[in-house]
Amino acid sequence: MLFWHTFGYYHILAMLNGLCALWFINCTAKGRVATWMAQNLHNALESTDPASLLGAYRDLWVDLSHMMQQLGRAYSGMYSVYCLLILLTTIVASYGSVTETMDQGLSFKEAGLFIVAFYCMTLLYIICNEAHHASRKMGPEFRERLLNVNLSAVDQRTRQEVHMFLTAIDKNPPIMNLNGYVNVNRKLISSVSSINSLDSTIHERKL
To answer: What's the pTM?
Structure first.
């Protein structure tokens, strides 16, 4: 392959990196907003009207949770194909690198296949890891902040708002889901790694 032959792959790399960057920006933004809200819960409880502020925070949290769920639905088709492309490319590159290395030894071709597999797994890791962090900051960490509130030190309306806030978190779990196809979290990475390991094991047994 000549150097100018690689020009046909640059737009593919730009697309893969661009979609990964878009997902990273969206998840990071939602995670930071959730962190900011959790950090300001203490200030809300110390205000003159904590019940009203908690109610406003609850409405804001529900809107943020719905935005996270709608993000997965809106981009479900695009990112489903994206994840499938990464999965297939990783499997083919891993299989090709292992078979060629075992048959002919390590060379630049096999090193290139290793780099492709590592690159695809890195993209998948970024997507899954950012979705996991955003869901954790909006879900378990936020819920833990509410559970640590000293209910005996607040009035009845504030206690009611805390219970309603916890109910809203339970009924609207902030899960990144591609329209029911798959939940985007760290388990997706382990599933892909298991598939690659199974593929390599099958090839070794054939040999």
So the answer is: 0.79
